[in-house]
């Protein structure tokens, strides 16, 4: 029994579920549901929802990276793992950088615009975040496919 590896894998998968599942919910469920709200209501709601969601993502992202690197090390390092792990790491790092950009740029501008009552600027930031989340969600789904089926598809 390898309890540390099992714990790292569970932590890794749960962190991915929080992040990718949250993006899926926000993009495909919440976004269409709030379309009927006024722009001011919609941008204020997005500011509140993203504030809560990003608090979780700020925990999930480091846990994903640390647990993933720990598992790679436990499996013998980058030379010992296959192409699926290399792809997951590369795509995951890119997703993390994209999230950090969203968090520190358009999301911060969204919060400031909502606080200032500048609905057009807030709406513009929501649009930017939406586009970047679409990219990250697509990459996240690709990473899940690689994680689950990569050993069968890439050998």
Structural commentary:
With 155 residues, the chain is mostly helical. It has one domain. Helix content is 87%, strand content 0%. It has five helices and no strands. It has helices at 3-33, 39-74, 83-104, 106-116, 119-153. The chain is elongated, with a radius of gyration of 18 Å. The relative contact order is 0.15.
User: Rg to the nearest angstrom?
Assistant: 18 Å
Low confidence ranges: none
Cα shape = elongated
Mean pLDDT: 97
The helix/strand class is mainly alpha
Beta content comes to: under 5%
- Structurally, the number of domains stands at 1
Helix content: over 70%
- The helix-strand sequence is HHHHH
> Based on DSSP secondary structure assignment, what is the total number of beta strands?
0
Report the major sheet.
Answer: none
Total of helices: 5
Distance between the termini: 27 Å
List keywords for this structure.
single chain, 155 residues, mainly alpha, elongated
Quick overview of this protein structure:
This protein has 155 residues and is mostly helical. The protein has one domain.
Annotate the secondary structure layout.
Layout: H1 3-33, H2 39-74, H3 83-104, H4 106-116, H5 119-153
Helix pairs in contact: 1-2, 1-5, 2-3, 2-4, 2-5, 3-4, 3-5, 4-5
